[in-house]
Task: structure prediction
Amino acid sequence: MTRRPTGLALTLLLVWLVAYPLAFVVLDSVRGATGWTLDHVITFVRTPEEWKALWGSLWISIASVLAAGAIGVPLGFVFERLDFPGRRLLGALVALPAVLPPLVGVIAFLFLYGESGFVARIARVLFRLEDSPWRLSGAGAILLVHAYSMYVYFYLFTRAGLARVDSSMLEAAQSLGSTPWATLRRVTLPLLKPQIIAASLLTFMTSLGSFSAPYMFGGGFRVMTTQIVSTKLNGDEGVAMVETVALAIVALIGLALFRWTHGERSVAAAGKGAPPARRLRQPLARGIAALLGWTLAIIVLLPHVTLILVSFVPIRTWTTQLFPPIYTVSNYGTLISEPERLRPLLNSMWMAAVSTVAAVFAALWAGRMIVRRRAALGAVIDTLLNVPWAVPGTVLAIALATTFSVNQPWFGRLVLVGTLVILPLAYFIRSLPMTGGAIVAGYRQLDPGLDDAAASLGAGRWATLWRVTIPLLRPAILASAALAFATGVGDFVTSILLYSYNAKPISIAVLEMVRQNDIGVAAAYGVILMIISAGAMAVGTGR
Amino acid sequence: MIDLSKRFDDRFAVRDLTLGVPCGSILAMLGPSGSGKTTTLRLLAGFETPDAGRVMVDDLEVTHLPPVQRHFGMVFQHYALFPHLNVGENVAFGLAGRGTPDERRRRVAEVLALVDLAGFEERKVGELSGGQQQRVAVARALAPEPTVLLLDEPLSNLDPSLRERTRRELRSVLVKTGVTTVFVTHEQEEAFALADRIAVLHEGRLEQIGTAQQLYDEPATLFVAMFVGRASTLPGVATAMGRVRLDAGTEWAVSSPEPLQTGGRVQVVVRPEALKFSPDGGLPGTVREYRYTGARAFFQVEVSGALVEVEAPIGAAEIGQSVRLSAAAARAFPDQP
Result:
């Protein structure tokens, strides 16, 4: 028997990168130039705008959960339980918003529903209006984007849950005299509760940390994430810290509440599996279901199509026409031929790649420590891996910006802000919950005997990792790495706070193009991001 | 009284099956997997619709009633207990909208006591053992006082050590409540111990219906003879009323479900306990294998290329020994053309 290790090295690394920066945020919120002070906190508490922003974050998140649930859950039922022509294809298309990085989704919405977008132009032609009939701005616009991009969680979770509900449960309810509606209410929905709660939690946390939509569409409506960034840019470091702490506290309370409601773990329904989708006999019902499915799929696809369309429009050629008059590939040509425009793309690619590889290896290390060697600090490692998920990206970025802008090597603080290291580091930390979650769970399912078997056949530790563990964990590694890479490439929320000119990421370039009204190039960037994300997802889920 | 006649055309999962179950009796549907017994049960329950035929309860036709309106209780193979409800809530599920909450509570306590689980109302389903879950499933099906109780492989999910006890308890519950019961099983022992009458199904057809003894002693078809209990077959030719000349040489007296055509080829089925080693002539063979089961021993005897099983006292013969066999009873079935 080998000695049971503590996992101290990995714990220290994670503490340094995850917990330590967050602690600095808390410290700096009660520290001033002269020492400890509550000035920042008092400023925060006395400013009504701060409370408005906090409340805005909270209610937008709750409303996003309700809106996304109201779309996603029924949609999951329709596609899992009814059979109609085109069900399989449409069922896959409906999940597409998942492959739009947040900022890309936002600009696609801008081109589609914005004041000079397609829908507004059509409305102007139809009703002969001088001006655009609406502005895509404020809480409603944010909610629209959130509902569009987050119903996918509910949709996918509902489908997965329904697929696991044992058909004999439903038959049992029927034979006990329960009508279809009563069965839905008394059996199916309670059995789906874990999935619905999980999707709600995911939506709540994502909305709370959402930055792209409030930043682009918020207008006068402030939420905490945009508030933090503007305070920070104004130079009010202390107040920004208090705001960051406040947002983190709301996130943690939300998380705790969901965990508490979750309560007992639901018993997974075992048995013969799901009933087959019900074939609709009446042609009318089939027609209605198909029509509904196709309409929804088209609505879901519109932003993607818009983005692709706009990416072919050269600058300053689309003014008052309903549809752009000229289509060329010149935007893509510009992207490739002008080094200045190509570089952000390459920057994002290498930074996301490096951070993904690092996050996979950290997760493998953690899995080995927690599961195989049952390290004394296993639980701590597990928690630290998941912390970056519980705190919004803005909070994390502020924490890193604070910690790594001072040179105090003895305190573990280095000047990394402004160097090439800071963004990959931020992406790496944000990837940890994804790779950690999947790979540690994968480790738990591995037969421990396999390691011993490999060892008895003369394989050393590295040979075992390379020839046994990694091949067995391949699905988990691929899926989580794909997700981490796509998130890194499309990242906006941490990039905007941490990027430097020598390593400008693609999202910042997109933002600049939109600001310069060079929407064709912005859309072309968006299409490339969309393709990278879709490709990564296909790789991750395909095998 | 249930009177069923049904055809399930598509793949012929069930063909022209007519079954009657007297009120208050227990019927087992016995058959190998794929024999259509589960399909028949699901047709009875209303989860499938027959392509032809009717399901009658007393004089009422229920063929086209949805399961909700049939008032049949069903116990599922994997019990299908609702994991989000506790034992009491599971049992009360079918009582929704009946009587006062107090009456419902009393009824739940009553059926739980019936299955020997009194006081288990607050328990979580996941905490129960397999046998207890099975009894909760029975209690839940019985709570709304169904006209007919249907059970799908009620004991197949239990450890072998638990089965015998559970089987006895289940039988006593069914007898006590007097509910008309139909259950499905692929295990002959289970059917024999639980049921009053047994219907043997094969490829969607009814082979025979009768008591355990009838099936064992007077099988109606070769399939029933071979499926129920242990048996060996020997080919031969019918020579006269009740006599068969075996291809191996000897002539035996046989019974048969219907008169045999003289000169027709038959299969003679003989049970191990009906055979004995006889010193004074009989079917010649050689002992090939020997299996000891405690009180008795089973010998595999090779008779002109085929193996025949003989039950005999320990040490009655040795491997390699030449023996002669005589049969106390044998049953002959005409060869299928």
Q: What stands out?
A: Helices of chain B lie at 37-45, 87-92, 101-114, 130-142, 160-177, 188-194, 212-217, 222-227. Chain B touches chain A at residues 45-47, 66-74, 76-78, 80, 82-85, 93-94, 96, 125-126, 140-141, 144, 150 (CB under 8 Å). The radius of gyration of chain B is 24 Å. Residues 230-334 of chain B form a domain with the OB fold (Dihydrolipoamide Acetyltransferase, E2P) fold (CATH 2.40.50.140).
